[in-house]
Design goal:
Blueprint: H1 15-24, E1 32-34, H2 36-45, E2 49-52, E3 67-68, H3 74-81, E4 88-91, H4 98-110, E5 116-119, H5 128-134
Parallel strand pairs: 1-5, 2-3, 2-4, 4-5
């Protein structure tokens, strides 16, 4: 399973980290996971931006503030419409699939967003890495 992919040139200040990740196969996670139950705690801790990819799939209560950016436009619009200094909560239930949500998160990470949270991203139940994250054997 590929967790991260590096292409192109790497800045000198990141070269040792990238080399270590490539040679060991371990890399820092690009995003954390959360469920809607976790959202209240996240909201209490700091400001955040809620990102949805398809408003037809959004099930947020009336009055909830969110930013709608389709996945195909994310690489262009995120730089101008999202803030890098606050957590970005990506509502994966509004993406076409779990894979497309992960691709969108990777797009954000490649654009320099570091505080990414995948909300309601489905887990592949048979994946050893998912079981390890859950603390289940």
């Amino acid at each position: 399973m590929v967790q991260a992919m590096w292409t192109g040139n790497v800045p000198d200040d990141h070269a040792d980290t990238v080399l270590g990740e490539l040679t060991t196969g371990a890399s820092a996670p690009l995003y954390s996971r959360a469920t809607r139950r976790d959202l209240d705690e996240i909201a209490k801790a700091s400001a955040y931006e809620l990102l949805v990819f398809n408003t037809a799939k959004a099930t947020w209560p009336s009055g909830t503030r969110y930013r709608f950016i389709p996945g195909g436009e994310l690489a262009i619009r995120a730089e101008y419409e999202l803030h890098k200094n606050v957590p970005i909560i990506a509502d994966c239930s509004t993406a076409a699939s779990g894979l497309s949500c992960q691709e969108n998160l990777l797009t954000l990470a490649n654009s320099g967003f570091t505080r990414l949270i995948a909300l309601d991203l489905p887990r592949q139940q048979d994946s050893p890495s998912c079981r390890a994250q859950d603390g289940k054997p």
